[in-house]
Design goal:
The protein is α/β, with parallel strands linked by helices. Helix content is 41%, strand content 21%. The strands form 5 sheets. It has a 6-stranded mixed beta sheet, with helices on both faces. Helix 2 packs across helix 4, helix 3 packs across helix 4 and helix 17 runs antiparallel to helix 18. The longest helix is centred in the middle third of the chain and has 34 residues. The protein is globular and about 95 Å long.
Length: 608
């Protein structure tokens, strides 16, 4: 296997903080690597070093000669005066002209930009939102088809439809990947190797995300056992060290050196299991809110039709309901939340909110706070303690520790926090107010996976109502019990189930519609465009079609067995790197073949 990138003995510090120390990483052809770490521990810094945007304090990074490297930065920048299309050519290092090659590239640019919902390629980059700029940058790196693609949070600012498209696109390509993402379904389905940056050290797991979870817990359990053994020995050695110098032989200096090494090991901490945080929410009555035939629209401008968010929308929200809101960008999900909160007035209709409802609103906008304040002071301004119920309380400091702010980090000034740490602090200030109705608008943006797990547990135990807008499919599956699906143009569908169930229902409906519109059916037209004469006799499979149908059944069974074997092998962690590479290339081709044969089987089954 060709090694595309080799990083050796890397160390990086920011001020007095060490992000990673003496770590090494190799990425070979065909590997799809997911990088996992808590916010503020150096994920983006490591990517910058590997991509050549930054230099390590110690160590070196070697990229194989002739390897084309593409890097999607967390916050990409473009010249503001350029159009979207010109920025694509500029980023690709080429000039836009009338040559055949440039015209072919332009078609490719527009196809991928269309998938990412960037339709008007003549718009200036300066007028795009941060999310749109990120999507233009993503289109750029995908079009370049690099040998090694490095992605920093590629799913941020993408709606669910775009995420699923990108997941499928990367799954079909034979490129080598290194990515940071908090989307756990994305990690599980795209990556075949997980590396975790923890405690300044890099740990490698040769499998997908599910395999990583299993093996990571084994690593933590082993580390705890090792620390427990070190503590037992440490107590014995401490007694010897405290004895008088005369009682220690001058020949025992090696024992003193060993003691200090043992002391480091005994005092080492591993991440403890987080307690399920059950906060006592304020009492909520049986009347929550009722949306009484609410309509809302905005003038679109530029000669386009108005943007309709809601059209005579009626809904009666139930006690303890946990609702997810999904839909493409621009369909009005965030506006719906602001209408409910009274931040935006409806054009007609009204929201009637119960007297006992106490909202807690976590918005997409970053919290407005004095950045010269310390973390602990910002939280104490909200509350000194949190009521857990049953006479139990948590102090502000203890509550922050549940969300991975150590006592030392709590003394940090807010301006020093990373984007993810600020979002975590913002969440703490919302939850500390003991609301009984949580409204969370994209709470998973910039959150690391550990924080997401804590938030999932909190919301599962929460004795109140919840509405969540999120593009994190795993998070939605864990927390919500039904969905409002915003289709656009005021159409809102209520679906009883989580996101995965909703997508399965949509795919099933699409298959049924495809089978009904089968061109072999009675309503099909001939090649001459003449509709065939209808007869009372039902259509039957021809002998050749019957043979094909039986062959498809055998093929599908064999392909599903092969797919299951590959997924099991990739998750086992026992196969070689070469086998991982081969299987990773085979899997997307296998999925395509399965889809094609399954669709044909459905068509023929109508007449079997």
């Amino acid at each position: 296997m060709k090694v595309y990138l080799q990083a050796t003995c890397l160390t990086k510090r920011v001020g007095d903080k060490t992000l990673f120390h003496d770590i090494s990483l190799g990425i070979g052809e065909g590997q799809r690597v997911g990088l996992i770490a808590q916010n503020g521990t150096g994920k983006t810094s490591l990517l910058n070093v590997l991509a050549g945007d930054d230099e390590p304090d110690v160590g070196e990074v070697i990229v194989r000669n002739g390897i084309r490297l593409g890097y999607l930065r967390q916050t990409p920048e473009f010249p503001g005066e350029m159009s979207v299309l010109d920025a694509c050519f500029w980023h690709a290092g080429q000039q836009r002209n009338d040559s055949e090659e440039a015209l072919a590239m332009e078609v490719q640019f527009k196809q991928i930009l269309d998938k990412l919902k960037i339709g008007d390629t003549s718009r200036r980059m300066s007028v795009l939102s941060g999310g749109q700029v990120k999507r233009v940058a993503l289109a750029n790196v995908l079009i370049q088809t690099p040998d090694l693609l490095i992605l920093d949070e590629p799913t941020n600012h993408l709606d669910l439809e775009m995420i699923e498209w990108l997941e499928g696109y990367l799954g079909r390509q034979c490129m080598t990947l290194l990515m940071v993402t908090h989307d756990r379904y994305f990690l599980d389905r795209v990556c075949n190797l997980i590396v975790e940056l923890d405690d300044e050290t890099l740990y490698t797991y040769r499998g997908n995300y599910a395999y990583y979870l299993e093996k990571r817990q084994e690593r933590i359990d082993n580390a705890r056992a090792e620390i427990a053994r070190a503590n037992n020995l440490y107590r014995t050695e401490l007694e010897w060290m405290r004895s008088t110098p005369q009682a220690r032989s001058h020949k025992a200096s090696y024992r003193e050196e060993a003691f200090y090494e043992l002391e480091k090991k005994a005092k080492r901490r591993v991440e403890e299991d987080k307690l399920r945080l059950q906060v006592n929410s304020t009492y909520i009555g049986s009347k929550i809110f009722e949306a009484e035939y609410v309509s809302k629209s905005f003038p679109a401008g530029d000669g386009r039709d108005e943007l309709v968010i809601l059209k005579d929308f009626y809904y009666n929200f139930s006690r303890y309901e946990k609702m997810g809101i999904v839909g493409n960008n621009g369909t009005g999900k965030s506006t719906f939340l602001k209408l409910l909160l009274g931040l935006v007035p409806p054009d007609s209709g009204r929201f009637v909110v119960g007297d006992t409802v106490k909202f807690g609103y976590f918005s997409q906008e970053t919290m407005k706070v004095d950045e010269s304040m310390k973390v602990i002071d910002a939280v104490r301004r909200v509350a000194e303690y949190v009521d857990l119920g049953g006479g139990r309380h948590l102090t502000a400091m203890q509550f922050l520790q549940h969300f991975m702010f150590s006592p030392l980090q709590q003394q940090n000034y807010i301006y020093k926090l990373s984007g993810g740490e600020r979002r975590r602090l913002q969440l703490c200030t919302v939850l500390m107010q003991n609301p009984n109705f949580l409204i969370l608008d994209e709470p998973t943006n910039d959150m690391d996976i550990v924080t997401l797990q804590i938030m999932e547990q909190y919301l599962q135990d929460f004795r109140g109502c919840v509405i969540i807008v999120s593009h994190d499919r795993y998070f939605m599956d864990k927390v919500v019990d039904h969905l409002l699906v915003f289709r656009g143009n005021g159409e809102v569908k209520d679906f009883p189930g989580n996101y995965t169930q909703f997508r399965e229902a949509e795919k099933r409906q699409a298959r049924e519609e495809a089978s009904k519109s089968n061109p072999s059916g009675s309503n099909a037209t001939t090649s001459t465009g003449i509709k065939p004469r209808l007869t009372d006799k039902p259509r039957r499979l021809t002998f050749k079609e019957r043979q094909e149908f039986e062959s498809l059944e055998r093929d599908i069974e064999a392909l599903e067995a092969e797919k299951s074997d590959i997924e099991t092998a990739l998750s086992s962690g026992t196969i070689s790197v070469e086998e991982i590479t081969t299987m990773s290339k085979r899997l997307p081709l296998l999925n395509e073949e399965l889809d094609e044969k399954s669709m044909r089987w459905l068509e023929l089954s109508e007449f079997a």
